[in-house]
User: Fold this.
Amino acid sequence: MRLVKELAVLVMLVAATPLLASECDYLHRGADWLQCARSDGTYVVRVPDPVATRRVLNWSSQFARFVAANQLPPHVSLFPTTEFLAREAGAAVIYIGRPVTAAPVPLEGEWRGADPLSCLRAFAKAAGLEVQVPQPGLWLIGEPRFVEKAAVFAFAYPMDASLQPLQDQAAVGELERAFLAGLPVREPRLPMQRDDLTWDVGVALLGFGYYAVPGEPDTYLVLTTRGTSTSPSRSWDLLDTEAFKVRAERQGEHVRVRCLWAERVTGPLVARVQEDLDGDGLQDFYFEEAGDTDYPDMILSGADGSVIAEVAGDSLVVEKGAAGPKLFSVNQIWENEPGAEVHRFNPKTRELETVEPRSAPADGTSQAHAIPARTFARPADALAAQLGSFSRVRAYCFPGFKIPTAPGMELLQTRLSPVWGWLLDRNTHDAIEHTPTKLPMHVLYKYVSPGYLEGWQQHARPQP
Assistant:
């Protein structure tokens, strides 16, 4: 068992660990080859067990020259040490380039500092990296060739300002910065390498849409975005969207977020959909796919982020006033034949089940009676047929669509933040240089290095 564990650690050593949907935290990601702690009033980074580390390295011939030199090879994860120091200082650290060491460091080495930042700078210098602090609370770390040409734009906004308005930045700024500092989304895409083997300038464009979950104190659904483009043929900086459910907690002088779960999603949160479809007592979350990406909408469980359903269509209709798992209908379950049916989530099997519908609602207000059972064109008709009345139906119409109403049916028109419309398929360079001032969002950090400006002016080309 020990051999298997150490071999697994060896695999993590030779490559940066990718972001996994189930991971909420950088601090515990990657091998603990290097550790950081506070000792005798100072901060220190060291290899905690050089003897054991040397033994593991000896299992691979590719590391022989490093063992002979009593060194830890490059490409060791920065996360455990850097995140510890940044949290001690209450800072957000952004990994420019690859989040790994760039040079070997001595196995017996120690790098100390009277404060977290000086300790990190001492270690980074030995590891072939550079640390910059362009603004208070913002640290950049990476190879000098990337850091010196970096641009950073981090912003936060309420997912639906008509439902939860944008508050004054003095009131929520600390919370918004805690989202940035605490969530594992601070690895911008590596810049594109040109034909002459030089590197293009890169933009760390990081967005944080958030929604305070009703009935769950200090709990938020945070939608993070990196990049902007939904089309691989149009842009190198593809959109990466992930949902985090977090709890905000004050620890000493700082607000920190404790991540409850994380899941990759296909687009923005439709915050006005406030339903508990799986019947576990917690609100579930509906995400509309971003643009024309040929991906499904997603419904996630509020309890653990698991997928309740992947769907498509213009609306979600839900049984009103039901206890336990609710009946609901959509235009189409993803990858099934089109046609509205009635569904219920089974909490025991953790699967979505289709409920056999009736032919028409008892009140006769729909044309569903003319359509054969199981082939309803409208979700509202399918659910009303099952429940016997439109008065028991709540319908959510999604942004960009209009659906007909029916007597007695509750109809809610949903909307997205205009920030999302500005963000989607935006050229990242244009986004950081020309940001509308009236958008309901707060700019957390905006930094453009001299190297970025020089490189962009030298190599800028018209976008297709």
